Task: structure prediction
Amino acid sequence: MTELRVALVGMDHWYSALPIAEGAHARDRFSLAGVWDSDPARAAYVSERYGGQVEADWRTLVEDPRIDAVLSFVSPDLNPEVCVAAAKAGKHIIANKPMALRLEDASRVVEAVRAAGVTFLPAESRQRLGPGPQQLRQWLNDGRIGRLISASMTTWAGLPRQWPDDPSPGWFADPARTVGGGWVDHSIYQLDLLRWLLGEEVVAISGQTAKHLRPDLEVEDYGVATATFSGGAVATLEDTWTAPDGGFQASYTIVGSTGAVRLDGVQGRLLMIDGNGPVELDPPGKHDQAADLDHWAAVIAGESVPVATVEDAWHNLAACLAFYESVDAGRTLSPQEGPA
Result:
């Protein structure tokens, strides 16, 4: 396969954009050919370290026939416009999460991607390639804990930064630029993981949000949801921005019909309970975000089946929007049905 020339459009979600840019720079199969950001200083920062010509308009990169693929890490309000333009220009796409503010905009992205026949890898679905999710999926496929019947997942995080040296949350806490706050920031990963492990969609969701520590925010710093999947499995998803600096931790309990898996994010312990009793296992290694590029390149080359598609991004957004609608309505709701 020839070298893939990629453009980085936006660094709003820099937590993903910077590792991906570094990975593209370090891989022979990739070349970071162009960079754009609403803040020229941030674009220059990336260009100086990882290459790529800085452009004043993102459309210049999307429309450049020399560019093969686009990494869209703009905020969700702009993401659909970038993705639709990229698809129509025949570019392959990795895109930020959530993919849009509204399902109608997400549907436009799905239609454009399908029509163009390009690959689309959702940012929240790249976790499926990590060692932890891969191990969980293998255990379930092997019947190690039986059929998945419930899950409890918690992410305790601090307020996100809009840039490494800027502690203000920026777009992450701006209701005009994203669909919610502390809950959606990490629950979208949990929903995607469970959808993938189960091979099912969310059919009902409810919950509540609050501002426990940050009443000045326009979005919640706490949220908890109960989601029911089409096969009957039930999951509780608790996500916050209430952790102190350095206090981030993610934990989960996956319960099957014959056993369970428990990851303690505080102590870093992974336990399995099956017919042999509780056994402590080595925790999964850290997920290398940049390595996701290798999978993406293999899919583009026709060497691999995609781990996720644009339809996954649509369903993840639909479940998140249904949660916030259920909070406002005070009752359980079903996500909107969407593209097959």
In short: The mean pLDDT is 96. The chain has nine helices and 14 strands. The chain has two domains: 4-126+292-308, 131-284+318-329.
